[in-house]
Amino acid sequence: MNLPFLELPQLLPRVLDWVEAEEKRALDQGTALSPAALDDARAAGVRMPESIRVCVVPEIPQPGHPKIKQLAAELGLITPQTIAMTFGFGIFVRTGRASDRETLVHECVHVAQYEKLGVEGFLMQYVVQIFKNGYDNAPMEREAREAALRIVSQ
Fold first, then answer.
1. For residue 41, what is the enclosing H or E element?
2. Are strands 53-57 and 31-32 parallel, antiparallel or unpaired?
3. Could you tell me which of 136, 133, 131, 141 has the C-alpha nearest to residue 8?
4. pLDDT in tens, 17-27
5. Number of folded domains that form the chain
6. Separation CA 108–CA 102 (nearest Å)
7. Residue 149 to residues 54, 96, 152: CA-CA distances in angstroms?
8. Per-residue model confidence as pLDDT tens digits over 122-152
9. DSSP 75
10. This prediction's pTM
11. Spatial distance between the Cα atoms of 29 and 90, rounded to a whole number of angstroms
């Protein structure tokens, strides 16, 4: 990894600013969940699913700060294949995947994680888990995948 992981604490205020700005954009421009999606969000553990807004975009937003963009790419958080990303109560989903139930439920699990940990707590825990375990094996990602599969298969 070119960017030292130890730089994360210094970058955190800028990461928080970016996440909060993207959440605000999703909340301003996104749409509320359907009644069925509200039920799915509740099943995913979201306490306030009516606060979620989904913003359909051609591509997932990239951080403007070059070091944050580099870290996100190196950790596999935002790649050309990324189909969705959650920023607090704001969920960005790429065009063509907005009606994919499993993707939306997966992202709702991340909303529930944000609710439980707060933005800073979520980001620190999530990034550390991905750094230590890799994206696919990070516990928070596994939780989201497993819950989405369980809820969609019911």
1. helix 35-43
2. antiparallel
3. 131
4. 999 999 999 99
5. 1
6. 10
7. 20, 20, 5
8. 998 998 899 899 889 999 999 999 999 999 9
9. T
10. 0.94
11. 10
